[in-house]
Write a structure and sequence with these properties.
Length: 369
């Protein structure tokens, strides 16, 4: 099977799954505004488009002339392409009125209140209904094409991390180390960072989202490095904590606690469990060791076309039953205010009763530089 035929086969499966959800909602069509979602259903990567998907599987992509050739090159299969020339809501309305529709779903997370009101005003004969994370429900389970992209994103991220370790030393500036890491993502074949690279050293390592700053790394610092590259639109997300020189005894101790908590969390990431089981396996151990109050965030989230999936109110990780080919992070941490913190994060593929850790950078021992 050629790459194009494989892509088209997978796109058709994705479309069929989404149309089933549209029918389950008693609707005739869905209007998609989220770039990740229309990319998932068309393979078009441009940043300006809307997609109408009907319950019969018809797709109408609305974009503009800047992307005409790109759409032709990227989007296979039967797809009606409309080049917008006027007001976006009126252009969408023209397409809706050309179809035999009664009820239309709209992505609630990605349409403004003004736009939603405009669509209702322009289409008084249609019933509109807000839906939450409909396409995302299909995206939660990765197909083979997606898994290949995720594995490559992770491989690029790991190679790039190894490339910056020699720079992590006393006197180095967090921002400079982060810039080199972001550069290596592209040099190694990625599309750049999948989020703002976190490099937090010393007391800043207790900041769970301590994006790289102008701080100098000092001898004795713990350094939390949270990083990931995009590859073909798919995001990796990995964290390692390294020690610069000899670190405080308690910081070394909490590293060991976090490492064991993560091991237990990964062991619980099996098909049939829920995200809350993964969380409890890690959190209970941290609580037992007396550091529960210093682990405030969730155990993880899904990854894919977006760096944070399976974490929104409609699809929280804790309530999600884990099924094969979901990919999510397991990232416990302990953060001691005004002292420092530790986080270890890996990307895990649900594989029956044998979770596969896709990110394989060393972590069994605290990395000392």
């Amino acid at each position: 099977m050629t790459e194009e035929n494989e892509l088209l086969t997978l796109l058709n499966k994705r479309i069929a799954s989404v149309t089933n959800l549209i029918k389950d909602a008693g609707a005739d069509a869905l209007i998609i505004f989220n770039q990740a979602n229309y990319r998932y259903l068309t393979n078009f990567t441009g940043e300006e488009a809307q997609l109408i998907v009907t319950a019969h599987g018809d797709r109408i992509l609305l974009s503009d002339s800047r992307f005409a050739d790109q759409i032709k090159a990227q989007a296979p299969g039967k797809l009606a392409v409309i080049m917008k020339r006027g007001d976006q809501d009126q252009e969408i309305t023209k397409q809706l009125q050309a179809l035999n529709l009664k009820k239309v779903l709209v992505e609630g997370e990605f349409v403004s209140a003004v736009e939603y009101a405009n669509l209702q005003r322009l289409n008084p004969d249609l019933e509109f209904s807000i839906c939450e994370e409909l396409v995302e429900r299909v995206r939660n389970v990765k197909d083979e094409l997606e898994l290949r992209a995720l594995r490559q994103a992770i491989a690029i991220s790991m190679a790039s991390f190894k490339g910056i370790l020699p720079l992590v030393k006393p006197g180095a500036i967090e921002r400079n180390v982060g810039a080199k890491l972001d550069y290596l993502f592209k040099i190694n074949g990625g599309e750049g960072p999948s989020f703002d690279t976190i490099i937090a050293s010393g007391v800043r390592s207790a900041w769970a989202h301590g994006v790289a700053s102008d701080k100098e790394i000092a001898d004795g610092d713990m350094v939390v490095i949270d990083f990931g590259a995009f590859y073909h639109g798919y995001a990796a997300d990995i964290t390692r904590t390294v020690a610069v020189g000899k670190v405080d005894r308690e910081m070394h101790q909490i590293y060991d606690i976090v490492h064991e908590a993560q091991r237990r969390g990964i062991a619980a990431a099996v098909a049939g469990n829920h995200g809350r089981d993964v969380d409890a396996a890690a959190r209970d151990y941290i609580n037992e060791q007396g550091y529960g109050q210093y682990f405030g965030h969730g155990i993880g989230h899904g990854i894919g076309l977006e760096i944070h999936e399976l974490c929104q109110p409609a699809l929280p990780f804790g309530k999600q039953e884990l099924v094969n080919n979901m990919v999510h992070t397991v990232e416990p941490g302990i953060y001691l205010p005004n002292k420092g913190g530790v986080r270890i994060e890996d990307d895990v593929l649900i594989n029956g009763q044998n979770p596969e850790v896709l990110s394989t950078l060393p972590k069994d021992e605290l990395i000392s530089l």
